[in-house]
Amino acid sequence: MSGRTWHSLPEYEALRALMESGTTSRAAARLGLSQSAISRSIASLEARSGRILFEREGGRLRPTLDATQLNKRLDPLFEALDRIDGPTEPARETLRLIAPPTFAHRFLVGHIATFLKSNPNFFVSLEVASSEDVIKGLQEERFDLGLIGVELTREGVTLMPYRLSSAVCAMPVDHPLAERDAICPQDLHDQPLIALTHRHSRRSQLDKVLTNSRSTPRIVAEASTSFAAVDLAREGLGLAVVNPFPVAQYRSNDVIFRAFTSPIEYRTYFAMNDHQPSPAVARAFMRHLRIHTMKTPFTQKA
Questions:
Q1: SS in 3 state form for 69-104?
Q2: CA neighbor of 161 nearest in space, from 261, 300, 274
Q3: Averaged over 57-66, what is the pLDDT?
Q4: d(C-alpha 175, C-alpha 185), whole Å
């Protein structure tokens, strides 16, 4: 070919169409052009390349060796165009999600499953960590969305209210207090109690409520999560004062939950980084949770 470097896509399209169809009329119909337009494109390409590309033989145009070689060199170009113009798979967005065990192990896994079934082009990576690590991970931009049940205010992280819950007492179905609709602090006096460990801020809050009510339960065990505390209560060790969300959704068949009349409230938050835009998949997952979170007597939308 000559040293001219410009290229004409219509000429290349005419070449390929003519090679595959064999006649200018069929090539024209294939490209939606006139026969004369096809002929002009081929003539221009021959003039530009300085080579004969087609020879007429029995009413048909037979491609020459030069045409065949040129068409082969054009394969990568048209394959690229097919990828650009043809149908493409939607981008697979990833949600980097982090939450403490209380939310991750039972609550989130179910909602992640239903979310991905209805959104097959999304992908979720779930990390289970402490609430402090949830905040740290968001600050370091290693995650897109977190879920926490404590109000940890840190620079660079926004907390968006999700659920508001009132405290409940969890106890075995045959517990003496199970017949009551609500339990007050005085009712816990001298009762065996499973408490959260002292690292929980809620432990000191409950201790204060009990002290102000002159109620002194017998602490028989401690647990680091509400799920563990409720499981110990189910085994008959005593009762536990816990956040009902989301544990009440999974233990209501074998444990009784009763309202605990106190000022103790629990808030659950979506946590996000202030400095990076919230991706569409994170917004979609938050909406999914808001819509599909089970309603219980002790929890409401925040």
A1: HHHHHCHHHHHHHHHHHCCCCCCCEEEEEEECHHHH
A2: 300
A3: 79
A4: 16
Q: Domains, the chain, ranges and CATH? A: 9-85 (1.10.10.10), 93-163+268-301 (3.40.190.10), 168-263 (3.40.190.10)
Rounded to 10 deg, the angle between the 75-85 and 9-21 helix axes is: 100
Locate 258 and state its tokens.
Answer: 């009763």
Q: pTM to 2 decimals?
A: 0.67
Bridge partners (DSSP) of residue 1 are none
For 109-163, what is each residue's pLDDT tens digit?
A: 999 999 999 998 899 999 999 999 999 999 999 999 999 998 888 889 999 999 9
Which of 199, 208, 202 lies closest to 240 in space, CA to CA? 202
What are the structure tokens assigned to 22, written together?
Answer: 């064999």
- Of residues 131, 134, 132, 133, the one with CA closest to residue 144: 134
Cβ(160)–Cβ(272) under 8 Å? yes
